[in-house]
Every structure is written in C-alpha cells, then in structure tokens.
Amino acid sequence: LAAIVMAAQLVASATAGKTTYVVGGWLPQDSASISRTLAPIFQDYLSDRVGSKMDPPVKFVFKPVDQDSDTSSRSLIESGGLDMLYSVAGSVACKAAQFSWVPLATQQNILGSSVTGSDALVVFSLLNNSAITRVEDLKGGKLGCGYLYSGATYYEGFQMLLDHGVHMYRDLAQVRFYGADYDAYFRAVLRGDLDAGFVSASWLSRNDYDEEGLLR
To answer: Is 84 helix (H, G, I), strand (E, B) or coil?
Structure first.
C-alpha cells in the first residue's frame, strides 16, 4: 500500500492545478466485484488519507476498466479519461510490453508466509480421471482458463504447459476462456465437460469447491 500511495503522490504532484484523478482498476472479476474490492483503496483511502493532505486537496475517483471495448484502459488513457491503472501482474506485463507503459509502483503478494511475484497457478482435474495424472496427459484434452492474458489463469499455465512439452493451442483439443467465472469451469471439470482447469491460488484459498475430495 505504501508503494501505491507514493505512486498516487507522484502522479498527483505531476500536473499542477489538477484536483481530480481517475484511477482505473482491473481484476479477474465482474465490474461490481472489482469496485467492491478496489474502490475502498483507490478512491476512499487515497482521497481521505493522501489527497486531503495536498495543497490544493486532491480527489481520487475509481473506475473499473477493461471489461469491454467501452472501458478499454488504453483508449481511456489516450483520451484523457484515465490517469492511472491498477491491474494484476500478467496484465501489467502485457500492457507494458505492448504499449510501452512504465509501471509507477509494484505490489507484493503474500501467499501463506511467502512473498510471490504474482498470484500462484493451480491446475486441477478430476481425481478419478485416470487419463490425466501428469501435465503431459493434457495433450488432446479440454482445458478451462480465466481471462486471456491474466497471470495465474493464463500466462503461468501457458508457460507451464510449454515446459512440459504441451502447446496450449496446438496440442489441446479445446481451450475455453471463462473470464472471472471460476465457478463455471470448476463445475465443468466436476461434470467431466473439461479435463482440467487453471485457477489462482488466492481465489482457491477463499472458496471450497471440493468438499468431497473429487479433485487433484
């Protein structure tokens, strides 16, 4: 949070006379969930605890972005409708490379007692599916992912498959993208409609979809 506050102070002091800054945010969730998660930090906290101490006072307004073409962070930044962007590691890396954007600050993620550079990937499949016992067995199978270009539910899994000799688009029979609807592809694996899925460790730690021990 300290790094985020410093970034807010940096940006707020960069444009003399400007008193309202729009902070865009993206997470692998729907717009309402993104606002519930991030607005208390990037709107309420920054306005109350950081902006109020500036002269003149600065207000921060939060806006969910990258949900559709109308909320594209790139378009909003280029048009002046967005001043800053918060996103997950995979998305930040992609945008930085694609648009030559420079991150102002980074955030540490703590999983258990360890610091990780991004949210950890979890690969899951049915325990009684004897055809899938190793990563290499996913060849010819059906896979569920989150958002295209997300960290834990796409990039990390894509690389993990390559490390085991499996190309996501050449070697799998089907890849389905579910966005933030992790629930849908968890249940698809449980029904046998998918052979495996990628999910983030942080989401899995907050939700229990395997009370009967059916997944590996």
So the answer is: strand
